[in-house]
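Re-run with default settings, no changes from the original entry. Doing this only to confirm the output is reproducible before filing.
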Amino acid sequence: MNEIWSEAEKQFIRDTANHLTDEQGAVELTKTCGRIVTVDSWRKQRQKLGIKKKPGRGICEVVVLDGSS
């Protein structure tokens, strides 16, 4: 079922995406918001927010897009 993401949940993703994997983020958000958040839903919402991760398994860093190039 599609749930509407609250601003607090979106902010949690913005704040933690750079140091948590998608799986860890989904687990932590599930604990804090009281509803089940899957890895796929976490990842999709992160992508909708424009947050892109560096490729590779277990890499937690986000890609910083620099407008100077």
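The radius of gyration is 12 Å. Residues 22-33 form the longest helix (12 residues).
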